[in-house]
Design goal:
By secondary structure, this protein is an all-alpha fold. It has helices at residues 5-26, 29-36, 43-69, 75-93, 99-126, 131-154, 165-170, 181-197, 214-217, 229-261, 265-269, 271-312, 317-325, 327-345, 351-380, 388-416, 420-423, 434-439; strands at residues 156-157, 161-162.
């Protein structure tokens, strides 16, 4: 039986605001940090550490959800409190001028935000009748929210249509991305969203009375699956490919702002999310024709291609756009297909743990290392990411690192991964629901970023 349209509409609004908040400040945070901390020693490292805060929080999010929301309080109330408190931290962060303080405040913020990614999924699933059909319709509004936030911050839709909402409210006509306005904007929406969350359908704790297991919360029950050689290769590859992934999320916006789009860069970054939606729809088509191994391999090679385009042709606007548009292949072909592979390989009683373990390896450990690596690498080559001249001079050196890293992982995966059992299976395209499958466990900007 289908859910009430009113409930689906309210959950869609919830999902829209959930990701609008994140996209509103996260994409442009690198540009902002370059502006307010210019002249600071180790500026690239500061940016990497700031972006790593969401990975640290992502590692701990399952514990927080498992301890609190799953056992003691209604999910909608926990979600409300997290976003109201988070609004205060974002507002405070917008006035910070010391790098160390900013990083600690952002860590505190993401400790509140990251658990809510699981909470909004729980609220949705608990209040709809047919998750396979209805959840994708709700979840897609999260991606739309991320895209719209980019248009609002850039104050344009891909340079075609002006959307000067922030100028109307603030009176500031200069580059909004280099100011604290995106943080203030996200703080205000977070407060509104927090209050709205109190009115969401009641979602009582699903594990009330059940003993908490740290091993289960982190997905470590799935470690026994590593005895399978192919699953072990897949797991290591997932971890390793997530290291160069961090380079894209932390530095692409300030790169394209400097070499191509200026204050409109956040709008053009949304091309990546548009591409993601398109390729999610096409996953069943490609999966039937290519199979799991080649889908995963194409996804990894797309990262190499993207970084080579950025590094070798930073002066070409069209090739930079192609690099951004490759996000759909980069993310969907590897991460969404990877989640489908995990679901197929894991026994039914371990599927939730296996998906949690996949997230721990990728959005947690892999991207965490990647953010520290990109900071170290940027400072090692003395990258000046605040100017066009700096990026044109340092682009090849900076982007060649993740390009070669991704290529190395792809070669290793090609040589050692031969899962004949999965490749031999007939894949029913009609039965696949990639948006639904990929969204039930996700905790990262990869989903929408």
């Amino acid at each position: 039986m289908n859910s009430d349209r009113y409930v689906i509409s309210r959950l869609s609004i919830m999902m829209f605001m959930q990701f609008f908040i994140w996209g509103g400040f996260f994409v442009v945070m690198g540009v902002y940090l370059l502006e307010i901390f210019q002249g600071e020693e180790g500026l690239n490292t500061i940016i990497g550490q700031a972006y790593a805060t969401h990975n640290w929080a992502g590692l701990l999010a399952p514990v927080i959800v498992g301890l609190i929301a799953d056992r003691y309080f209604n999910a909608e109330r926990v979600n409300a409190v997290c976003h109201i408190l988070g609004a205060g931290l974002l507002w405070y962060a917008a006035g910070i001028t010391e790098p160390g303080v900013f990083i600690w405040v952002m860590l505190a913020y993401f400790m509140l935000y990251m658990p809510t990614l699981a909470l909004v999924n729980a609220i949705s699933f608990a209040n709809i009748g047919d998750p396979d059909k209805e959840f994708p319709k709700i979840r897609v509004w999260g991606t739309i929210g991320w895209i719209v936030s980019g248009f609002v911050v850039a104050q344009t839709i891909l340079g075609w249509v002006e959307v000067p909402f922030l100028t109307w409210f603030t009176g500031i006509e200069s580059n909004i991305q280099t100011t604290s306005i995106p943080l203030y904007m996200s703080a205000i929406i977070s407060l509104i969203y927090g209050l709205y969350s109190f009115t969401l359908p009641k979602t009582p704790p699903s594990e009330k009375g059940k003993k908490f297991s740290l091993k289960e919360a982190l997905g470590l029950d799935a470690l026994k699956l590593l005895t399978n050689k192919n699953f072990a290769v897949f797991s290591f590859s997932s971890f390793a490919i997530s290291i160069p992934l961090a380079f894209y999320y932390a530095r692409t916006n300030d790169f394209v702002a400097a070499v191509a789009f200026g204050e409109q860069s956040a709008s053009f970054m949304a091309i990546g999310q548009m591409s993601e939606v398109l390729f999610m729809i096409l996953i069943p088509f490609f999966l039937v024709r290519l199979g799991v191994k080649w889908m995963l391999l194409v996804g990894m090679l797309a990262w190499t291609a993207r970084y080579l385009l950025f590094g070798a042709f930073p002066e070409s606007v069209s090739l930079v756009i192609i690099g951004i548009a490759l996000h759909g292949v980069c993310y969907d072909f590897f991460f969404v297909t990877g989640q489908l592979y995990v679901d197929k390989k894991a026994p039914k009683n371990l599927r939730a743990s296996a998906q949690g373990f996949f997230n721990l390896l990728t959005y947690g450990a892999g991207m965490l290392i990647g953010n520290y690596l990109l900071g170290w690498w940027g400072d090692s080559i003395s990258l000046d990411g605040s100017t066009e001249a700096g990026w044109l001079e340092g682009a090849f050196q900076f982007w060649i690192m993740p390009a070669l890293f991704a290529l190395g992982v792809a070669i290793m995966f090609f040589i050692f991964f031969w899962d004949d059992e999965v490749e031999a299976e007939t894949l029913d395209a009609e039965g696949l629901s990639p948006i639904s499958d990929s969204s039930t466990e996700e905790i990262s900007p990869g989903t929408v970023g």
